[in-house]
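Exercise 7.
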Amino acid sequence: MRRNFWLILTFALALAIPAFAADIAGKWSASFDTQIGVQNYTYVFKMDGDKLTGTAESQFGKTEITEGTVKGDEIAFVENLDFQGNPLRISYKGKISGDEIKFTRNVADMATEDFVAKRSK
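Solution. The predicted structure, written as C-alpha cells, is:
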C-alpha cells in the first residue's frame, strides 16, 4: 500500500512539472536560398518565460517578432515584413537542438522554406 502511494505521488508530480522552455535568448544567424534568391538573416531573441520577442533582420529590413512562443524544444513566431510596400506575413516553426534551430517558414501561404539558424558566438 505504501509503495503504491509513492508511485502515484511520483507520477502526479511528474505530470505537474511543466516543460521548461529552452533558453534561446541572444543572436542567431541563417543564410538560405529562396524563390527570390539567397537571404541572410540575423535573429535576436528575447525570452520571458515561454514568451518569445525580438527582431528579425534581413536585406529587406528589420521587423519585430510577434506571436512568439518557446515550449520545450519547439519554437514558433511571426515576422510581419513590409516587402516593397506590401505586407508579408512569414510564420516560423522550429525545433531547437543546442546551438541550432531547424526551421520551416511559411511565406504568406505561397512558399515553404526549410533552413537552419545557428547561435552567433
